[in-house]
Amino acid sequence: HAKGCGRRQAQYFNQGVSASAKARFLMENQLIEAIANDGLSLVYQPIMSGDARTLVSCEALVRWQHHSQGFLSPAEFLPLAYEAGLIAELDLWVLERACRDIKLARARGLSMPPVAVNLSADAIMDPSLTDKIWSLLEQYQVHGSQLELEMIEDAIKDDSDVLQHTLKQLVRMGLKLSIDDFGTGYSSLLRLKNLPFTKLKIDRSFIQDLPKDADDCALTLSILGMAKGLGVSVVAEGVENGDQEAWLQQQGCNYLQGFKYHKPMPIDDFLDLLTTA
Ligand code: C2E
Ligand code: MG
Ligand code: MG
Ligand code: MG
User: Fold this and answer.
1) 3-29, pLDDT tens digit by residue?
2) Which residue has the higher pLDDT, 185 or 36?
3) What is the rounded distance in angstroms from the CA atom of residue 103 to the CA atom of residue 92?
4) How many alpha carbons lie under 13 Å from residue 252 in its C-beta half-sphere?
5) Ligand 1 pocket by Cβ (under 6 Å)
6) How large is the ipTM?
């Protein structure tokens, strides 16, 4: 009797595992399909000048319109993309769509501000990345200066020749490089000094409790001071209210991004915003 029960339990367990493995396999294939057939989409979030008056650039953020699960945010499917080895391909899709949207804006007589795209370590470490970007620029008649690339500290932690070479080449092509979520990873000052980054984006977690949290004030101030010393500019991410804004402005933060100004929006809304701004 006990044996039978144990077997039933084991069976139940196996079914559970295989059900979730199946679901994962299905999701993975749906993601491959979405990347290949434009099942993904982009939303654009404006980045404002330090005085918050002018829209100076924007960040392209990926979404997945899943047929049964609805509009999925990066947190809901990027982990799968990373684990399944699909993230570099996804990043390339985003780059291409951004170029296409820059061209679309031009066709409507508008000029898209520089578009920042997020790049994973896999994409950056791909030795043919610069060739791929070069082809996109040519195909869509986009200048390198219309694109910016954001990378988190951990994506650039490997001190390899490929990385050095790629980053240099990208800068030569006119692209600007930013470090994203600054303060959450580990990168040394020396590393920053030796790589051609021109912007730091302070992670939202440091901005959230400004100016009440004394630690966050101290950390943000030290990042701003360090950036000044290195001659790079700073973007504060996740600015949601006037208190944060006033404090950041007082400290001379160069750029502001957050729901206080605009939420990420589809390209048509973004182009409308450009028309009215
Ligand atoms: P991120 O690059 O740091 O992008 C900023 C995130 O903060 C976005 O979330 C944006 O919607 C959110 N955000 C902006 N302002 C505010 C605010 O005031 N309050 C709050 N609560 N949130 C704000 P999202 O779109 O969910 O993206 C999350 C992360 O997913 C991104 O963080 C980025 O690391 C990653 N990601 C997005 N698109 C791509 C992509 O195409 N490729 C790669 N590799 N990663 C991507
Ligand atoms: Mg980013
Ligand atoms: Mg960030
Ligand atoms: Mg982030």
Assistant:
1) 444 455 555 555 666 888 888 899 999
2) 36
3) 17
4) 10
5) 45, 61-62, 73-75, 78, 87, 91, 94, 118, 120, 150, 180-181, 204, 237-240, 257-259, 264
6) 0.98
